[in-house]
């Protein structure tokens, strides 16, 4: 199959996947039971070319996130049995990182990978408000996946038009996350940061980045992800506490790990296997940006 066609299909598949996740999130908000969700069907006329089928996973439409963990296969507890804490690194080569850490379940923090990133100095609430509202993206914001958590803010438009008191963290607390989904959007943001130097040279990333932002005391609840690959997350501003918990079947064998990611540090962790929650620590607004790598 032509390489360009394959890349085009993968791009379209990723966009469709994100839109399905967004739809499923809205279904989950309705508190529908799994019996109802299981009756959702694709139109009978949908035909997928045979040369593309190998790119598809077993399920076209996934269960809501609150149900996914109930049906995941049991983990081999060797994934966590000898891991007692996060490993902190600096000045490591891509070859060393690939050999020792890149595709393992060891959580790693690289402390020197954001040097010379413009994002460290320039990313802020006001930066993203201007980026999404004033750079001709206003009509397309929130087209991909968006996490409102417990903020009550139902879209990026609501996030970036909230009252000034709440925006500067002196009002009602908030924390949100979202993905990019347009190539020009991702490229523009990536002009403020570069590919982490320690990633394996053969590793590739989708044209999709994730941004998480909010104030002290807020964060993501305990959960396990269902994404394609391991991810890196760069702490641009603020300090964030991470709690990693082993899968339920491994709680008697593995340790619960708690650590803090400081501004300028990058965390690499397999969030598909470690249960995790985050809490923004007192001080500055937290801004985290990251991506998956294969």
What does this entry look like structurally?
InterPro entries: Cupin_8, JMJD6_ArgDemeth/LysHydrox. Residues 95-248 form the Cupin-like domain. Pfam families: Cupin_8. The radius of gyration is 19 Å and the shape is globular. The protein has helices at 3-29, 34-38, 65-68, 94-102, 118-122, 125-134, 156-159, 164-167, 183-190; strands at residues 87-89, 108-110, 146-147, 175-179, 210-214, 230-237, 240-245, 257-261, 266-269, 275-280, 286-293. The longest helix is centred in the first third of the chain and has 27 residues, at 3-29. The strands form two sheets. An eight-stranded mixed beta sheet has the order 1-2-9-6-11-5-4-3, with no helix packed on it. Strands 8-7-10 form a three-stranded antiparallel beta sheet, with no helix packed on it. It is of the alpha+beta class. It has nine helices and eleven strands. The protein is 26% helix and 19% strand. α4 (94-102) links the parallel β1 and β2.
């Amino acid at each position: 199959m032509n390489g360009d066609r394959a890349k085009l299909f993968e791009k379209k598949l990723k966009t469709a996947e994100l839109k399905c996740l967004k739809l499923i999130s809205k279904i989950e908000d309705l508190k529908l039971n799994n019996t109802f969700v299981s009756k959702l069907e694709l139109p009978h006329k949908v035909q997928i070319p045979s040369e593309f089928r190998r790119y598809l996973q077993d399920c076209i439409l996934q269960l809501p996130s609150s149900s996914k963990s109930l049906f995941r296969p049991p983990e081999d507890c060797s994934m966590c049995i000898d891991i007692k804490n996060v490993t902190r690194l600096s000045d490591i080569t891509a070859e060393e990182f690939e050999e020792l850490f890149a595709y393992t379940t060891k959580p790693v923090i690289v402390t020197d990978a954001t040097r010379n990133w413009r994002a460290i100095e320039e990313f802020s609430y006001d930066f993203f408000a201007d980026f999404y509202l004033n750079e001709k993206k206003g009509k397309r914001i929130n087209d991909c996946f968006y996490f409102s958590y417990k903020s009550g803010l139902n879209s990026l438009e609501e996030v970036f038009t909230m009252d000034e008191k709440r925006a500067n963290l002196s009002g009602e607390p908030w924390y949100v996350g979202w993905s990019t989904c347009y190539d020009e959007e991702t490229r523009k943001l990536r002009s403020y940061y570069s590919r982490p130097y320690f990633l394996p040279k053969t590793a590739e990333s989708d044209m999709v980045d994730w941004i998480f932002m909010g104030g002290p005391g807020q964060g993501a609840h305990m959960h396990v992800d269902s994404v394609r690959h391991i991810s890196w997350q760069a702490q641009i501003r603020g300090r964030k506490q991470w709690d990693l918990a082993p899968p339920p079947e491994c709680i008697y064998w593995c340790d619960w790990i708690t650590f803090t990611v400081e501004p300028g540090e990058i965390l690499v962790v397999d969030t598909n296997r470690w249960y995790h929650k985050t809490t923004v620590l007192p001080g500055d607004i937290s801004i985290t940006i990251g991506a998956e790598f294969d």
